[in-house]
Automatic annotation (TrEMBL), chains A, B, C:
Protein name: Aspartate carbamoyltransferase
Aspartate/ornithine carbamoyltransferase Asp/Orn-binding domain mapped to chain residues: 160-315
Keywords: Pyrimidine biosynthesis, Transferase
Gene3D superfamilies xrefs: Aspartate/ornithine carbamoyltransferase (3.40.50.1370)
InterPro entries the record matches: Asp/Orn_carbamoyltranf_P-bd (IPR006132), Asp/Orn_carbamoylTrfase (IPR006130), Asp/Orn_carbamoylTrfase_sf (IPR036901), Asp_carbamoyltransf (IPR002082), Asp_carbamoyltransf_Asp/Orn-bd (IPR006131)
Domain of life per record: Bacteria
Residues spanning the signal sequence: none
Pathway named in the protein's UniProt entry: Pyrimidine metabolism; UMP biosynthesis via de novo pathway; (S)-dihydroorotate from bicarbonate: step 2/3
NCBIfam families: asp_carb_tr, PRK00856.1, PRK08192.1
Coiled coil: none
């Protein structure tokens, strides 16, 4: 039994390097099930309450399928209007009632700390699927897991890596949580590239410096990427700027496409993005012309989300060592794995 | 085979004292499965059509999970817009088509008697999950089941009990159906407490009197509760009053909190509420400060909903005697039962 | 292994007479499972991604239940707002990500050719559940399958049949796809009955003529039905007409009810309709008074949709010969089959 059994997963702050390794080890064990080489019914009969009080197709379906892949059932709730919350019910009451109906809950909610509040009333483990501007810990975990897998695949490691975070570093909860997790590793060189209006908050920078890592700060993409092992792009929403004139100043400045990549990056610089991306040319974000590039990891990154979520379900429900016991063959046509 | 196999559950009027006992006996048998002490796959492969043409998160999820707990699959439809009903299709057509797709249907709809209408076209059993102002029979059943369990737990019984119904007794379909069911028992003392504008309808009062029970009517909470075994609270919606002045007159008059309870109630007066409640202080409904009181039964009441709905599925599909035959162990972490 | 294993089902154009026969043979094998005489768990553990970017209760539930009937799990997405598509994500990206989460996808989308576009990024088979004005191939297949079953039931066959298509033949994608499939058979007499403003497009008529079939064109129902084997009705939406005056000219002219049927049709003329129908008297479409007529096939037609979709899932996942291997008994109450 690990520390995770029966516990909530609410924040990256509750995770140590040891617990990260535990999660990643279980995530690796999930690979053959996700790839349909075989399947496991370890959670046959268990029920996931998939509560998305804020819609998010990708994350919702990823949680739901992760649970199905372990053999469990999923009961879903999508949207706020459909919920008693709109009638003045407390999150505590909602949690007390809905948690009776399932064995584990994955929850997204538009308000910061709402998932933590809900967890206090829940009788079953709650996994935070994103609570407003606060956290989205499974995204941070899948990002870190991807960084590790991609680097190990080419003989590198997180310790000593050069990681460039690009785009909206001010409002992107993803990069804040990821930075916090990366701080637990050794000798990382962070290159932070953003418009000055959307720079990384001081407290995150302080955390990175206090952990002894190196930071380079820049407001332009070019010239800062030639040593990067990881290039983590995020979307810049123009409405974040004080004026359209400010927004215009930066348009196209943080765009990545095949030509820019070839010119400015090492050939094994891994390209990541939390998705969705706007891949239309005028969006100036991450163009389609890198789609078949072997260093484009954005789809493997999404695939890894499934492994991480399967691992978290297995750990919180304490079945991570019973996977093989409930294995069965896959008797239908199944897709071929990418790399 | 009981009278329920293959039948619809549309109204409390179709239930006799015998059939109530049948339902409650099966509901009791569901307890270990709901508590995850063991599980049953008796409905493995069966399909519930969970049709919520009016949203209701709590009731919808309760039906869905009850079916999952018996091993079955759930296919859901939520909202009217998504439905062909908005294109002028008759409920009969909708029922003929959708009932082919499942083994049993749970249905909520905003219009009175719509579920009955639908049932005429259905080829499978239909359970009424609430049809507008008309009925919500599974709520009445879970309320009655809770009253029985709570009283028996403290050595009392429904026969001879003193039951106070409080709040909006005019528009609350819940209290009407519950009163009808209670009429089948003996020597009950009903205390009906509401604003005069929201008093219990005459026909319900006539039913209670014709069944030989005692009625006390009051317009204030205090002074009427000191002998009550059950205190069943319902929400008063201010828009029910003819004017805001009228509403203001009653604000706070039907509120229950720890201080009022201690002053006016026996220490074993069971507190019930159909939920959701507005537990904010200014709501004047049922405060949070009773949350840990052992007589607060509102969450056990919600839990009982699961047992009642499991029982109704088992009975309408005729598997109530096969539960043990399809039992399996629970191999994952499971929550501890409350009392 | 058939040509279908691992393939997309995007258009009726990809189907030959041989492949139609393959689909229909498998659909026939699905009958005892759909009727609950027995069940099969051949897809136990498989996941359907049921992506309805445009709502359609009937089609969505039909796909979902078809998959459940084969033992599989269903993860659903309904509506556009809930999707990343609204943030400028390409269908290719959406497909790459979401297709990792399931073994097969059924998809409806309001835009023509969107499902084909999506399929290019998908790593699993995609079945078109309707892409705007373009196609709805499973509807065409279930229509053709119904025509065949109904005719064979009364000793007739598609070859040599007289088939009347009635209503909005201009915008009804259903009748276009069905006509294309019927062209593969022999010696069919098509009677095309519509307002002149809503006549069958020239390219469909050319296809029918090039395939050597006979065509009669008319703008009124009466007088053209006395030799019809099949009467396929579709809805006329009044907003299709250039003016309300034009619409008024045709009101009631294409209505079918018991009296009109008895007067103008052979007693074994099979009545079909893709549903939903507006069966209200003022709708002038297809009245309720034929509901118990043995030649009214509209509900059997909907039932056949389940068989066709089960067949397509079995074929694309390559399990059509393993159904019996995973059979189990049905241990709950089950509806009686209609004819």
């Amino acid at each position: 039994m690990t520390q995770f059994e029966g516990s909530h997963i609410l924040s990256v702050n509750q995770l140590s390097l040891d617990s990260l390794n535990t999660i990643f080890n279980v995530a690796h064990k999930m690979t053959p099930y996700a790839l349909r080489e075989k399947r496991t019914k370890v959670l046959d009969g268990a029920i996931l309450g998939n509560l998305f009080f804020e819609p998010s197709t990708r994350t919702r379906v990823s949680f739901g399928c992760a649970f199905n892949l372990l053999g469990g059932n999923v009961r879903e709730t999508v949207g706020m209007a459909a919920s008693s919350l709109s009638k003045g019910e407390s999150l505590y009451d909602t949690a007390r009632v809905l948690s009776t109906y399932s064995d584990v809950i994955a929850m997204r909610h538009p308000e910061s700390y709402s998932v933590e509040e809900f967890a206090k009333g829940s009788r079953v483990p709650v996994i935070n699927g994103g609570d407003g501007a606060n956290e989205h810990p499974t995204q941070a975990l899948l990002d870190l897991f991807t960084i590790q897998k991609e680097l190990v695949h080419s003989g590198r490691s997180i310790d000593g890596a050069h990681i460039a975070l690009v785009g909206d570093l001010k409002y992107g909860r993803t990069v804040h949580s990821l930075s916090r997790l990366l701080c637990m590793y050794k000798d990382i060189h962070f290159t932070l590239i953003s418009p000055s209006e959307l720079a990384m908050p001081e407290y995150v920078i302080a955390d990175i410096e206090n952990a002894g890592h190196k930071i380079t700060i820049s407001h332009q993409l070019e010239g800062n990427l030639n040593q990067a092992d990881i290039l983590y792009l995020t979307r810049i929403q123009e409405e974040r700027f004080p004026s359209q004139e400010e927004a215009n100043k930066y348009r196209g400045k943080f765009r990545l496409n095949h030509s820019i990549y070839t010119q400015h990056c090492k050939s094994n610089t891994v390209i990541m993005h939390p998705l969705p991306r706007d891949s239309r040319a005028q969006a100036n974000e991450l163009d389609n012309d890198l789609n078949s590039h072997p260093s484009l990891a954005i789809f493997r990154q999404a695939d890894n989300g499934l492994l991480i979520r399967m691992a978290l379900f297995a750990l919180t429900l304490g079945v991570e060592n019973q996977l093989e016991k409930y294995e069965c063959p896959v008797n239908w046509y199944s897709r071929k794995a990418d790399r």
